[in-house]
Large ribosomal subunit protein bL21
Amino acid sequence: MYAVIRTGGKQYLVSPGEQLKIETTAHNDGAIEFADVLAVSHEEGKYESNLSGAKVLASVVKEGRGDKILVFKLKRKKQYKKMQGHRQNFVEVKINEILVNGKSFKA
């Protein structure tokens, strides 16, 4: 059982019980609900045709910041160099339940 959800401009393949890191999103009391479900499959190769009201429920495990990446810009022969660091914020969530067409799939 898996679903494809869209959040933070990216798409994720999720299944119940799985943990993943996503971009920081608003949550209330550690619970997140993903309503933008693109596909749901009970078994391999077969997809649900009606996704109205489909949603994925998750809980927040932790929040944090990712590893630092360095952004280096250089224009050769012009004496221009610029170095900047960046750390992306993330939320680690655990997928609890997938709801589709009145059916519930839990871990």
In short: The mean pLDDT is 92. Residues 2-106 form one domain. The two ends are 10 Å apart (CA to CA).
